[in-house]
Specification:
The chain has helices at residues 6-50, 60-67, 85-89, 93-101, 166-169, 171-175, 212-237; strands spanning 70-75, 80-82, 108-115, 121-130, 135-142, 149-156, 183-184, 187-188, 192-194, 204-206. It has 238 residues and is an alpha+beta fold. It is globular and about 80 Å long. Helix 1 (6-50) packs parallel to helix 2. It has a six-stranded antiparallel beta sheet, with helices on both faces.
Length: 238
């Protein structure tokens, strides 16, 4: 068997690492545009899903262009900063939520106005929060009365499969929100996630079984996230 000295092994290993790193870097550069497009398509699919417009990921961009032709950028005081649809879609929601929660009054978030196939308009807004293990997020769609929930969609970065992950995976959890209301008269009350409430309460849904902390996190996310938009909602309710 041929033996190699330490210098040869070191040089060979170094060259191999450099070559592999270069290949991975090239692959990452080549794939980046595709990854970005896929992320955009996923966001569009979530917005549409919240608006009760169900499409496959591949069909989301075309359907989004057809159904969500209006988007706004608003501040927490209810003022509309811009009606630039592209800018609204490209807002870094995670960053703006951090600014809002830290007390920055200049934080800006989007509102997506989507038209369903029956001609009804719904207003879709993003919400973000901290789950049991990592971030949770989603979209909430309101009917034109700015009070009644049309639908919701949630996602997460690391909730427990079969438990907290059911905020995304269990369609029954999502369906509970349909028809719930976020105002009691003129007072914002949000929608809470509680144990064993059934469909009796207008502002509450059943918690995910075995996932109390994640359920509480969803309640907190909705309370804080929707509260940002309350002044804007009230301008439309007048």
């Amino acid at each position: 068997m041929k033996k190699f000295n330490n210098t040869y092994i070191f040089i060979y290993s170094t060259v191999l690492v450099v070559v592999v790193a270069a290949i991975l870097a090239i692959v990452a550069v080549v794939l980046k545009p595709f990854q970005q497009e896929n992320m955009k398509a996923e966001q569009m699919q979530m917005i549409l899903s919240a608006a009760n417009i169900e499409v496959e990921r591949a069909d989301a961009p075309a359907k989004y262009e057809q159904s969500c032709k209006k988007a706004l950028i608003v501040k927490a005081d209810g003022s509309v900063v811009s009606e630039d649809r592209v800018a609204a879609f490209n807002i870094n929601i995670k960053d703006q939520y951090k600014q809002y929660k830290s007390g920055n009054k200049d934080a800006q978030l989007p509102v997506f106005v989507c038209t369903q196939d029956n001609g009804a308009e719904v207003y879709v807004v993003p919400v973000r929060g901290a789950g049991l293990w990592d971030d949770i997020w989603g979209y909430v769609a309101l009917k034109s009365d700015m009070n009644t929930i049309e639908s919701v969609v949630f996602d997460h970065a690391g909730e427990t499969p079969g438990l907290g992950a059911n905020i995304k995976d269990d369609p029954k959890f999502r369906k509970q929100f349909v028809g719930k209301t976020i105002f009691e008269g003129d007072e914002f009350v949000s929608v809470s996630v509680q144990k064993r409430v059934g469909d009796k309460l207008p502002h509450a849904v059943d918690a995910v079984t075995g996932a109390t902390l994640t359920s509480n996190s969803v309640s907190d996310m909705l309370q804080k996230g929707l509260n940002f938009y309350v002044p804007y909602f009230k301008t439309l309710k007048k």
